[in-house]
Fold:
Amino acid sequence: MCLPAINGELMNLTQKISFIGAGNMATSIIGGLIRGGISPTQLNATNVDKDQLARLQAEHGINALDDNISAVADCDILFLSVKPQVLRSVCEEIRDAVQQRRPLIISIAAGIQISSIDAWLGGNLAIVRCMPNTPALVGVGASGLYANPLVTETQKAAAETMFQAIGLTEWVSEEKDLHAVTAVSGSGPAYFFLILEAMEAAGVRAGLSAATARRLSMQTMLGAATMALQSDDDPATLKRKVMSPGGTTERAIESFEKDGLREMFDRAIKAAAKRSEELAQQLGASS
Structure:
């Protein structure tokens, strides 16, 4: 398995694309689209922080709009990239414009189910939910996607192509699976930062300087992830290839296994997925 290369497919997207909300994740998607060949003139954005919006316009040359209604009226694909807590009010504000224009809706608001978004926007709309993660900011994100039955194959392909501009994409067959996506890849970068933090501290205690321990740990993590992405071997096989009988790696792996590392990850993933479900219930109640 490997990350998809950004190819010429983005250049074939001629639709106008609007972003309601232009925070870090929307900015990373916009940057990826432009790097993939989308013209900045195809991209609109609104944002409550006008200074942030002005910086985005200056950096990428997109169209900065003053209001959300105008963004809906001038698009074929509409990204809902506001915080989950304000998504309902935004949807209710643009409902009439959305019903008139009927763009493909793409929501990156964590936890809010399609049924709620559809109800807030007036119903019967093609909607894709996406759970990206923060490495999208540097073009190596991992995004889980789910499409409701009204999304056409052409629209689904367009959504996939756009998110491939910021990394890897995986479709799930049921919306509830996005809770697991959130737990694995949405929250996952923090798990690896915790591992890096722990490895650096252990390296210092073993005699390395903090800077050396950090650089070695980061490069090792990058190298292992790159090998895994480029290899046909599963992680268990790759692990065995590093281990020599009676060697240092085997001793370390035995220590991890004895201390219950697998069970720790299982509990953590379940806890994160459960919290995702709780947030969906709290934030997604429709009228």
